[in-house]
Amino acid sequence: METNIKPQQYVTKDSGERIEFASGFTRDVNTDKPRYDLIHLECLKRLAELYTRGSIKYGDNNWRKAESKEEMDRFKESAFRHFIQYMMNEEDEDHASAVVFNIFAYQWLTKYKK
């Protein structure tokens, strides 16, 4: 089977430090590495469900089209509105996930779409 992955494209990062377990199993240390395992899966699922509903309503990754200050301000406006609704215990929508989505979208666009 032919593959497009070339071995020289990847490197195995090495901190230079090791941890050895009682069995003799040895690994690089996990110091300063992101702890994705700490994100509660139900919260991640709720966020994914919100992205799915947005995709159905607006199309896949529609949020990535935002460019202007007015469009970017909508993310902040929406995040704040959903935060207030969340703080007021409104349950008509998943306001907590909407806050996270809007902040993530704003941050991603600010970094990658200049």
Descriptive notes:
This protein is mainly α. It has a domain at 36-112. Helix content is 48%, strand content 5%. The protein contains three helices and two strands. The chain has helices at 41-58, 69-87, 95-112; strands at residues 18-20, 26-28. Strands 1-2 form a two-stranded antiparallel sheet. A hairpin with a 5-residue loop joins strand 1 (18-20) and strand 2. The longest helix is centred in the last third of the chain and has 19 residues, at 69-87. It is extended and about 55 Å long. The model has no long low-confidence stretch (mean pLDDT 93).
The average pLDDT score comes to: 93
Gross morphology is extended
Q: Count helical runs.
A: 3
Tell me the helix content. Answer: 40-55%
Global structural class: mainly alpha
Mind describing the biggest β-sheet? 2 strands, antiparallel
List low-pLDDT spans: none
Order of helices and strands: EEHHH
What percentage of the residues does DSSP assign to strands (E)?
5-15%
| Rg value | 20 Å
| Spatial ordering of strands, largest sheet | 1-2
- Give the number of DSSP strands: 2
Gap from first CA to last CA: 40 Å
